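Run log // design_07
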């Protein structure tokens, strides 16, 4: 029984870390005023009757802090990529020169920065909810193991361990959010 409880704790720890990793990935796509190729990560284009991420049909680079350059592997993809960026409605105005697409990333206004901080906090709260749900599931699993023969003392110890992991992960989430908010608010 004790080994099953340890497995529950380890699985919970891994899933909670995945929630933090997912949060970090979500926050990458929130632009902080600096050009970053990952800003286009969620945009998909039609390519041979399939929707594929833009980075699978073009090379995306950031030559400087205010510019994103998209070099399609096929020239025929230029208008398709341009349209996908406009349709995505992320506030970018792509310009093509027949060879590549350039996007000038406009500086963020104070109002837009505050909106992005709100969005960041919402993502953080979603991560916290996921972590709380994982803690609840772990504690329920431990209680089931207790009914199946795990001693009450060990069950309590494992519940305390689950709570400690939750607190540690919440601190990580807070740190990630703090760093992103600082990045967004830096002019």
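design_07 sequence
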């Amino acid at each position: 029984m004790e080994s099953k409880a340890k497995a529950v704790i380890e699985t919970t720890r891994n899933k909670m870390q995945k929630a933090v990793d997912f949060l970090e990935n979500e926050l990458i796509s929130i632009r902080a005023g600096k050009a970053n190729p990952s800003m286009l990560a969620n945009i998909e284009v039609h390519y041979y009757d399939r929707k594929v991420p833009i980075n699978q049909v073009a090379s995306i680079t950031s030559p400087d802090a205010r510019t994103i350059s998209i070099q399609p592997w096929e020239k025929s993809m230029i208008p398709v990529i341009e349209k996908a960026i406009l349709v995505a409605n992320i506030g970018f105005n792509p310009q093509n020169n027949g060879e590549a697409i350039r996007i000038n990333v406009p500086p963020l206004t104070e109002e837009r920065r505050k909106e992005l901080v709100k969005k960041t906090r919402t993502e953080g709260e979603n991560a916290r909810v996921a972590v709380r749900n994982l803690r609840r599931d772990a504690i329920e699993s431990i209680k089931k193991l207790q009914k199946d023969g795990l001693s009450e003392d060990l069950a309590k110890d494992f519940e305390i361990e689950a709570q400690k992991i939750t607190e540690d992960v919440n601190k990580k989430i807070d740190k990630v959010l703090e760093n992103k908010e600082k990045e967004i608010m830096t002019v």
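The chain has four helices and six strands.
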